[in-house]
Amino acid sequence: MTSSRNISIAAHIIPESGLTLQTPLWQQALSEAFTRPKALLDYLGIEQDSIPVESSAEFSMRVPRGFADLMRRGDPGDPLLRQVLPLQSESVHVQGFSRNPVGDLEAHAVTGLLHKYHGRALLITTGACAIHCRYCFRRHYPYENASATPRQWEALLAYLREHPTINEVILSGGDPLMLDDEKLGRWMQQLSEIPHLQRLRLHSRLPVVLPERITPELLTHLRKNHLKSVLVIHANHPRELSCRVTGKLKALQKAGVLLLNQSVLLRGVNDQTAVLVELSERLFEAGVMPYYLHLLDRVEGAAHFEVEQARIHSLYSGLLSQLPGYMVPKLVRETAGEASKRPEGFDLSEQKPHCIT
Ligand SMILES: *Cc1c(COP(=O)(O)O)cnc(C)c1O
Ligand code: SF4
Q1: What pLDDT does 272 receive?
Q2: What digits encode the pLDDT tens for the residues 243-259?
Q3: How far is the CA of 350 from the centre of ligand 2 (A)?
Q4: What is this structure's pTM?
Q5: CA distance 353 to 118
Q6: Which CATH architecture does the domain made up of 108-343 adopt?
Q7: Helical pair 181-192 and 216-224, crossing angle rounded to 10 deg
Q8: In 3D, which of 161, 244, 153, 159 has the Cα closest to residue 197?
Q9: Cis omega (within 30 of 0) on the bond before 174?
Q10: At what angle are helices 181-192 and 150-162 packed, to 10 degrees?
Q11: Cβ burial, residue 173 (10 Å; 0-12/13-18/19+)
Q12: Residue 304 and residue 141: Cα distance in Å, rounded?
């Protein structure tokens, strides 16, 4: 996750001379993202007084224009807007909400690599994201100390080579698709040379919030790589799946990528059975299997997104009764020190966590 003091994405990837013809479209779109709440509200025709906005949030605002175009004009309660608009309530301290709710700060095996679960290693490839989701547990994550520099990348590869039980690498972040095609292609190639690796997974919100990112070059890298590739996208509301997005998803599928989706259950965004049912239906239509429905990580600043326990259960019962089983995402919670994400309603306290650090 980036924060205002951290990285200005545009400044990093656009040469000082301004945009050149070589600047990929997606990087250009990124440089045009909304970063000031007032500009976004003006664009949507919403009075700033109608909503308690925080205009100097510690975790800055970032909203690609294409995503803003899917919001309803004039509606301060729009579920897409709610995910990204900094509110004053973020600065209210709420008991039980902390800065490191899932214990990731303690779990680094080597810098930039999390090996919490058996067989899978998660790599923090970059701290940057194309959109800043207000509920994100990474909003307080000190990425400047935790992302892989070229030298650290060598150390990550060495770690992976030395651990033959790891058969799946997850590129995460931030958002791994913020890396350019050349770098990503090089990394994918190096990973595919590790003999015990079988699967390459990417966790990315870019296919949804910046579909321009799915370039022909990226599709080629994915098609050519002999590791089985899995892309876990992140959509929370059916309206995020525009036809531009679903077109790119189809192209990814054609390139042999297995597509999954993870969502976060968020008050005022998708805490209605009908919305979640429609989301699953639309995902399936686009060739994406619903994977996880995460309960909110109790991260400081996100308390206004929490859904009450009783409501969670009635929502999920609704999904179970209205959808075919294969379209129901697993309802999970991440708890520090456990061996897997925890299916809600199960007690995993007897399970021995897999943690080798
Ligand atoms: C979520 C997560 C994974 C992947 O878990 P799955 O249940 O396989 O999706 C792997 N490593 C870390 C550190 C994670 O947080
Ligand atoms: S939820 Fe994903 S895309 Fe959104 S800010 Fe967090 S890491 Fe970035």
Answers
A1: 98
A2: 999 999 999 999 999 99
A3: 31
A4: 0.90
A5: 9
A6: Alpha-Beta Barrel (3.20)
A7: 0
A8: 161
A9: yes
A10: 20
A11: buried
A12: 20
d(CA 322, CA 328): 9
CB crowding 40-65: b at 16 or more within 10 Å, else e: bbeebebeeeebebbeebebbbbbbe
Reported confidence tier of residue 103, pLDDT bands at 50, 70, 90: low
Residue 357 binned pLDDT confidence (cut-offs 50, 70, 90): very low
Q: Which residues are annotated as a binding site for [4Fe-4S] cluster?
A: 129, 133, 136
- Per-domain boundaries in the chain: 27-90, 108-343
Q: Cα(113)–Cα(108) distance, rounded to whole angstroms?
A: 5
DSSP 75-100: -TT-HHHHHH--BGGGGS--TT-BSS
CB of 256 closer than 8 Å to CB of 287: no
**Is residue 82 pLDDT above 80, yes or no?**
yes
Of 61, 131, 134, 270, best ligand 2 pocket probe by most atoms within 8 Å of the beta carbon: 131
Residues annotated within a binding site: 129, 133, 136
End-to-end CA distance of the chain: 24
Give the position of tokens 């679903």: 246
Q: How many CA atoms does the CB half-sphere of 205 hold within 13 Å? A: 23
**How confident is the model at residue 8, as a pLDDT?**
40
DSSP string, 226-244: SSEEEEEEE--SGGG--HH
In this predicted structure, the answer to whether residue 7 has a pLDDT above a threshold of 50 is: no
How many other CB atoms sit within 10 Å of the CB of residue 100?
A: 16
The two structure tokens encoding residue 273: 């059975």
Q: What SS3 state is found at 172?
A: strand
The set of protein residues with a Cβ atom below 6 angstroms from ligand 2 is 1, 129, 131-133, 136, 138, 174-175, 205, 234
